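Service request form, structural biology core

Requester: graduate student, group of Dr. S.
Request type: structure prediction, single chain
Budget code: on file
Notes: please return the result as structure tokens.

Sequence provided:
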Amino acid sequence: MARHIKDIYIHSQNTLLKVLYIFLLVIVPYGITVAQTLIPTDEKSNYAKQIKDLFDQSNWDAGKNILDEGIEKYPKESDLRMLAGKYYEHLKQHDKARYELNKALEYNPNNVSAKEILVNVETESGRYSSAICYINELLEITPYKPSLWQKKIQLYEFQGYTADANRLRKRISTIYPNDSIIQKDLRYHIELETEARRKDGKLDETISLSRELVQQQPGNAEYYLDLINDYLKAGDQNSAMIYTQRGLNKFPGNLSFIDKKTSFLAEQKCYSELLSFLQQEMKKGNSATLQQQYNYYLEEAAEEARNNDPATLYGRVLEHNPGNEEAFNYVFNSTMANLQYEEALNILNRYKKARGESKALTMKELMVYNRMGNTARVAALTKQLFGKYPEDSSLREAYVNIMLADAKSKMADNNYSEAIVSLNLVTQYGDEETQKDARHILYNAYMGMGDYNNALDILKSQGTNGPDILVKQADIYYKQQRYPMAVSAYEQAIDMVNGESKAKYIGGYSDMLTQIVKELNEQYLFDDAMKYIERWITYDTSNPLPLHYAVNLSYIRKKIDDVQLYAEKGYTSFPDDIFFKVKLAEIKVRNTQLYAETYNEVRESLIKNPYHKDLINAFAQLSEDYSKNLIKNKRSEEALSVIDTALYYSPANKSLKYMKGLALESIHRFDSAYYYQSFYDPSAMEIGEFRQHLNYLKYKSYRNEVGIYYMRNSFGDDNNAVSSVATIDYSLYTGTNTYVGRINYTGRDSGKGIQVQGEWYREWNQHTRSKIDVGFANKFFPRIALNTSIYRDLNIFSGIEAEFGAGYRKLEDKESLSNAVIGITKDTESWRVNVRFNNFLFQREWLYSLSANVRYYLSSPKNYLTAVASVGSSPDVDIINYQLYNGFSVTNSMVGAGIGHMITKTVSAGLLGTWYNFKANDTNYRNLYNLNFNINVAF
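Core staff response, request fulfilled:
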């Protein structure tokens, strides 16, 4: 509709300029001065820059003025439409903003700024799913832009999809490990979830989340303490002790961890280790606080010492002889059994000093660090030992495991190149099973680096092409945009499996083809996309999506037969899928004769599915098109019924309300038409014309109208022979009846004449109307004038109005004139053509006059351009009514042009110029020039 109004507006403006120029040149010549402004070639970009600068300075009104000027000159400039959307988004006029931004994307689908603003518009409008769609499109352009991911998370939370939001947080935290804001947000939500699980008493879940927090931020002591407390609540004191020791390694001197460890050691009666530990910690600081604890536990240790076992005795032996093997083994094993790892290291170090380094002692040290969870020290010692003893199978296995763990850690940090180095060592020294795991990780590393050729070589090196390998090969081919090979590989994998596995593989196949078709469509390679869709349909028979694509692509490719083929196939396979019902209906209504049948079918479907959004939208569009056709065929009452039904399901649909306004206008219910047509949202280009049409409807809604008419006429061969006719009339509109009272006045050399007329116009029904007028005059006008006409709509030539009328006039010279008239009027949205054939009987002689009146509507029936013409053996009716000259039984012709305009919603005016030419005698012709002016006021 907007495009239709825009085309009318542009065409009407061009026509108006041409006719005004001819008319003013011939009838009212005057001088015109035209100011010209040079427009530089880079004006589009200058417009955009000026507007953007003004908007950035918050000077919105000045920017809007330049924006309107720019759009008027360049209506299809995407950036200008984008800026219009930005302006309306600033004003929170979301519908207008969405319209302009969609226009921007229509003219440039890659306008990123328009999509970014649309995200804000849809978010503020509460249309979160739509906002997410635009974010997804932006992520295809800038997939590593954190703010887009964070906005998507926010939209998920607005929709109440908390689980999806948290999963996305974890995902982007791995993508942006160094982004402090993202990591902080993830930790915050994990903290909330941990606290909730802790309150619910779900200890296992609480511990898992606490461990995740420790891994996320190992520098936060509170996370360690919370995890230790959770383990204690769960009764897992061993794990609590391990994390206490890790906390001490990470936060040396922290009193909370010191208190935790002393508590554990005190419970275990490990006073020797406890006191040694406190002595070490007092050397590092906090001596005053820890001294009190030391004194207390020293007394406790003394009490325990009385009941000590042989370990104490062996300990005393070691104090005097650190190299005693028996004492060392007993005390070392005892401390390890009691989880006294720090004490075990001290004993081991003293023993090494006494006996020297050895493989066995280094292996013991490795065991201690392994128990303590000191992975860095474990890795260093393992590498050191493997370097010295490469033939040791246990060391080889430990080395391979460390390198494999190192590779996994680097993979987690997306450090693929260094991970590949470690994985190559694993494949060199590991056993067959470990090498298999390493190759799997190598494949992922090469994929992460985008090194698809090496990833493909890894797959091929595995020997067999099982379905899983073929799927991975398909994924690589897809990323390399080798679509034929990707699809073929996936199809081979599908052919190799059955049952549930087949359904799983078909699901992945559909996901890949969805992306392929989308990418080809974005490149306008519709024929190529269709080939893949046909293969997709063959393999995925339980999925309606490929048939959806097939229908839509066939529309784009203008293959209407294919649209019907795939829509029917989809409807047969998926009868509950409304999409196919809608598309079949759209095809069916291409034949306007099937509007009613299709409308009833879709309405029955809607009754069964009254809340189906797509079906409601399709029904609304069908109702709009159907009602427009009914209005065109003068069946406006039926159109109103159709529109009211559609508004029941879609009460906020402005297009339907506007169409209802058009239907009401066609049956002359102008007040209601004004109300409903005011729902239409015109563009900046349409606003002037739209307001003019609303003014017309408002004008026609008034019951009273006064008109003043003035006609000035003169003969071309006698400048002194000038006369005028003035008219005033009053009209009363009472629904189906219109009553008019009119007075005509003229003054001439021989006196003055007055004519009084009455007129009654009646609408009997939607297709039949009548008019009767009668007049009486004293001079210059017919002494008696009586006319009657019947108007009837006929369904020929796509709908016309026929007129059948008769009239009688008693002329001033007492002669009588009878006439019969046949007329035809054809109305379209922009044109009105009226042709009348008048037959006269005068002095027993048959005379005729054929006349035509053509109007071109600019924005309403009160804003128009008109052209008139007549030819015949009698003057036209107006000349007879005003008796301007006696031209019976001679050749008469007339041409003229004029214009009508709505000045305000209550005032209209018109101007018409005519030129009559008639035969004055056997040799001469005379010219009569008329200038008619009218002004009408409604109230």
